[in-house]
Specification:
2 copies of one chain form a homodimer. By secondary structure, chain A is of the alpha/beta class. In chain A, α2 packs parallel to α10.
Amino acid sequence: MPLIDKHKCFGGWQLRHTHTSTKCQSEMTFSVYLPPQAESEEVPVVYWLSGLTCNDQNFVNKAGAQRAASQLGLALVAPDTSPRGEDVPDRDQFDLGQGASFYVNATQDPWETHYQMYDYIVQDLPGVVASEYQQSMDFDREAIAGHSMGGHGALVIGLGEPQRYCAVSAFSPVCAPTQVPWGQQAFPLYLGDDQTTWAEYDACELIRTAPDVAELPPIRVEQGLDDNFLEEQLRPDLLEQVANDTGADVQINRRAGYDHSYFFIASFIDEQLTFLRGEIDRSTEA
Amino acid sequence: MPLIDKHKCFGGWQLRHTHTSTKCQSEMTFSVYLPPQAESEEVPVVYWLSGLTCNDQNFVNKAGAQRAASQLGLALVAPDTSPRGEDVPDRDQFDLGQGASFYVNATQDPWETHYQMYDYIVQDLPGVVASEYQQSMDFDREAIAGHSMGGHGALVIGLGEPQRYCAVSAFSPVCAPTQVPWGQQAFPLYLGDDQTTWAEYDACELIRTAPDVAELPPIRVEQGLDDNFLEEQLRPDLLEQVANDTGADVQINRRAGYDHSYFFIASFIDEQLTFLRGEIDRSTEA
């Protein structure tokens, strides 16, 4: 698996690889931060899913997460937000196609061949990361996080695999995609018109229909109150409502003055990584 | 003065402005980080000068400096690395012209009209920043820092105005431009063939010819040992030699495994900002 970038960073290593994804039938790119602790022990893994228009580099370059990860002893795995390439279907808009997978397994033509991003994140990516870093990471201690469309991805993957991820951290997530324009545009194209299939990719629906909310991972949401997408696309109020209705462990931190940018993420990433590390330790001890 | 970007960040504000530079006869862009303390007091100012190919955004997005600045109560002012625009002379190479001013006051045609970056940093920029932020910043407490060509800029400006800046922090700086290819290419074009004029822009020469090295600001250099430019272009060994010869206060921190990237800068920016804040306080009390 080709290593295409490598930089020492906070005593550890910031790395970038390409590989061929079986699930997405595409060349894919991802980044890994290995903290210094990984030289002598297997460290827990936090996946970071980025948002619309992003690739694996936005988080790596802009979030400043490596500092806290080096202190907490966390590996960070940041995939791309979709398959890429000339063979991969795309649309000439920022919120559909390449860079805008919404982390679904598409069932509709022309998307279904390549857009299998849910399975990519849950199965394919951990497999290829393990093939290179088995000695450095402990894949029995995982958590998942993300921003915006990637916050949606972290929520639905964390809720969809409740035995797998110890906790979920979501910055400015799309909390109820079946009820907002971004989801209502993308889901019919990726998933078809049967809205029952959409519910598998809607955090609110996954909580509402969970057999036992006590089995779901704890969720922390960071939301800036000056975020331009807050009221139309993100809707943390709907997530809060379903958490209140069901008793799911969801805490929403509303931050006055903050917007949708990586300056917001950087401001609270330490707090969220500390939360994830704590939950990883708690669920491992339990 | 137009405000073109604004984000809340670590309790303070990341801001970006354009203005018309008198010295450079050009539209210029710069960024400011105002820490939360600036709401109630005038905070000290650290200027950050970036390197070849950069503008004001690289440091803002990639260094993760706002976290420490918010804790230390430091304003960060990040200018562009040269004048820009269709009227501004340029060359089709990364190490000359736009993005590659070397922070000199050019004396040669066609550069002299716009490339007055030393005066821009020392006079023009603080003036326009003060016009907007006089109530938030204390321009009697300043320090200067930078990376690569901007590390060179921080050194020569800090040494050239020894009463002005309390301390200098230079990451991977070009320490002796008159002796290395980057300087030997740029200085004849910007300054002419008389090498005595080059010495004003060479940190080693400025230390060697200083009337009293005790008057010079303390200098801390961060240098990665896996930096591709180390031996040919940067030459901290020459800076160390002249410091040893003269007794100037220069400390060079050599960091095994680190390269020339912002991952290196991010890893040590907290330490350097802490140093600058300490020297600002010490020289103000003195």
